[in-house]
Amino acid sequence: MSLTQRATDIWQSASQLTTKNNVIIAGVSVVSISIAVRWYRRRYNDSAPPGYKGRKDLPYPPGLPVLGNALQLSISKIIANFENWAWEYGTEYKAYVGPFPIVVLSSTTAIDQVFKERPYNIRRSANTEKLFEDCNIPGLFSMEGERWRHSRNWMAPQLTQAKTNKAGPVMTKHVVSLRTALQEISKTMEELNEKFYPSITSQESSHQTNVFYNPKDLKIDITPFREYAFSVMIDFAFAHENNTHFSPTLFQDLKIVFDVIRRRAITPIPLYKYGIRDSMDRKYDRTITDLKNSIKRIIEEYTPEEFKQNEDKMSTMLESLYIAAQEEENEKSNLKTATKAAKRVTIDDIVGNLITAIVAGYDTTSNSLYNIAYMLACNPEAQKKLQEEADSIFGPPEKRATMSAEELSAVFNDDYIKQFPYTNAVIQETNRLLPVASLLDGQLTKDLVIDGHYYRKKTVFIALTRVAALRSCPTPDPFKFKPERWIECTPEERRLHDKMAWGFGGGPRVCPGRHLATMELVIALVAVFTLFDIQPIEKPWTAPHAVEANPTTSLLDNVHLRYIPRY
Ligand code: HEM
């Protein structure tokens, strides 16, 4: 056989094979596509029973085939993306992330219902639960159903107003460090301001350059707020008077927990799940193991008698939990819910939940402080009223600029909200306009009618709490920062404001740390913020404006503040 003949034979048999393969590939593709389409139709069933509107009736922003609106969304501006569409498309609309539909809700009735239906008829997105499980720290925030109920039963009683009131001395101890740190930032920013805009004493020529503004010199420094929130949270959770049980670097190391959780929350390919772990992942594992061991050591050394003798002092969440778990068997018949729940708690439950509390209370509180500083800087009249309130109770600023933690602590009474009503109004107003968590996601676990629309089980949705509260604001000028609206209003307006104060969530899953957080904020504002006139540093018009950056909790970007001492 000639070489040409052989080549022709091979080519013919290859073509037959290719034709056969093509038929097989086409067959498999048709079957897979039809399975995928059936799955998609069942999973994302748009239909509604007769007489109801359903997801198919919702308006939506135009997008691309298959990709939907994915290219219009940015992870760091996700809240702004969804909120802007909410203002345009109304209280219910849908958007597509790839081919997957998401319902976006922003009416007060829908938000109310969503909060009430959780955690049983509505759950958090499955990703949240998985993420915290994979991170080996399942806790209240990520749990669902009965596991959630169990954790909630013992966590919430550790965070009541009465318990957190006892944390005053711990907070004032750390607020003194916050004061020192802000005094340092104040110096740095004043030097920078002087460098940018030197005081002109003798100007030789009107053409002389005398503005040296340089955006590269500007840095956002939120570290003092982070340190404050973190130290309070760690002490309150387990560390207070137990520092000797921890490795000296544990506090520093714990910060890796946040970085790793954040990183894992947004990674498209979770390599860590397949055993591909880098140095951060390994450090994370070591830190969690160290923490568990330290907690075991603390527990081994507890003496319930000594603890009971010190009942007026603050007990850490770990202490009260452990003591509850140790209650005598013969008290079983009239055990309180927290004690009953604590009896079934394991070390893993404890560690998971303590870390959850730290994670949930750390950047929420520090970012809130930053937002408040910004709001005050932009609203000098409100800032003046805040300063007047603090001065009326503490005396002139120069006095509290040097007060010790004990002296500061002695000033606060148990009802710090009544003691500092304007301060509280500033916090509420910032939470209304710049909440750190204004987007909550979830998934239905059964068919539900929300705001007149019938949504099928497994519908994924986003609830925009800020838009809902702004839409139905009961007092004038909804977009303006006016703390007075919380004080100078009718009882009915106040009731409505309180009902829509969703900065801490709502319903059975409302933030259990809200009393602790509010107290931390009040103490920081009156003891430290009011020592300064907070002002934005001057910038040219073309400089980037303040924006909220996400995705976990919102943090302002492009904000640079001067803290000008009043003392
Ligand atoms: C200014 C500070 C804080 C803000 C703005 C805030 C906000 C929130 C919000 C909006 C939720 C509800 C999330 C949702 O429903 O999906 C929540 C839940 C939660 N927060 Fe906070 N929080 C703050 C501080 C704290 C602190 C200090 C702690 C810890 C003691 C804490 C612990 C939690 C936990 C454990 C949950 C989950 C509750 C559950 O699912 O049952 N938070 N927080």
UniProtKB/TrEMBL annotation:
The keyword Iron applies. SUPFAM superfamilies: Cytochrome P450. It comes from Umbelopsis ramanniana AG. Residues 318-345 form a coiled coil. Keywords: Coiled coil, Heme, Iron, Membrane, Metal-binding, Monooxygenase, Oxidoreductase, Transmembrane, Transmembrane helix. Heme binds at C511. PANTHER family: THROMBOXANE-A SYNTHASE. It comes from the Eukaryota. The chain crosses the membrane at residues 21-40. Its cofactor is heme. GO terms for molecular function: heme binding; iron ion binding; monooxygenase activity; oxidoreductase activity, acting on paired donors, with incorporation or reduction of molecular oxygen. Pfam families: p450 (PF00067). PROSITE patterns: CYTOCHROME_P450. InterPro entries: Cyt_P450 (IPR001128), Cyt_P450_CS (IPR017972), Cyt_P450_E_grp-I (IPR002401), Cyt_P450_sf (IPR036396). This is Cytochrome P450. Belongs to the cytochrome P450 family.
